[in-house]
Amino acid sequence: METIKSISKEKNNQYKVWLEAGGSFYVSEDVLVRQRLLKGMEISDEVIATAKKESQLDHGYQMALNYLSYQLRSQKELEDYLKGREIEWASIVAIIKRLEDLQLIDDVMYGESYVRTQMRTSDKGPSVVRQQLKRRGIKDEVIEQVQQLYTEEEQLRIALEVATKAARKYGRNSHYERLQKIRQYLMTKGFNGEIITATLETLSIEKDEEEEESLLEIQGDKLWRKNQRFDAKKRKQKVTQSLYRKGFSFDIINAYISQKEMEDEE
């Protein structure tokens, strides 16, 4: 048996119970009242253990409510939060169950809200949203269910917005390279092949021959200077290969190279 020496109030509705033997432990206000803990009272080790367990449960529950008050959370996010605050697993399980009963934790509701928010505020496609939900501990079957909200129409709308911005960003690339970069960019954003193809068809970037020649000249001049240390044959080969990799056609590459060779002969 232990005897309570004193009880002091701490912050967050916690109380510290001091024992005559020198030890101490924390209890919540509810547990203090429920167990009727008073100065000078003799308590058994069992009562102390029960008081600690119930107090951690109360404390963890209040922390969980505070954590949920800012925004919706997935079950895993809440579990990780409570683990990080050293709440025992048994208490976490009980807290989660209580919150589920009150419908304060619901991964389907969380997933639906997350998908709607991403569609409204981000440029992420379905596969990236799926990865983000998975990292938040949402089960595959729930992800499949909530991603039905991300309709093909919405995917096309968002993908077109992303592609339009990318088209401006890559405006100084060849027509072929520009399309490839837009395609790759849409893939990194999480859109599938069908949506990307449909988006590029809608975007309809026409090839402008005059613009293509102008872009080639700008990039070609840089490459021509960069490779001037090589002999004429090697220089021509390197510049031709580099421009071809950038998506320019052999016809305008050859015309450009011929022009540069004529300039060098003058």
Automatic annotation (TrEMBL):
GO biological process, alphabetically ordered: regulation of DNA repair
Database matches in Gene3D superfamilies: Winged helix-like DNA-binding domain superfamily/Winged helix DNA-binding domain (1.10.10.10)
Keywords: Cytoplasm
Bilayer-spanning residue ranges: none
Compartments in which it is found: Cytoplasm
Chief place where the protein resides: cytoplasm
Domain RecX third three-helical: 153-198, 211-257
Keyword Cytoplasm: yes
Domain RecX first three-helical: 61-99
GO cellular component: cytoplasm
Entry keyword annotation includes Cytoplasm: yes
Function, in words: Modulates RecA activity.
Family: Belongs to the RecX family.
Name the record gives this protein: Regulatory protein RecX
Originating organism: Vagococcus allomyrinae
Upper classification of the organism: Bacteria, Bacillati, Bacillota, Bacilli, Lactobacillales
Gene assigned in the entry: recX
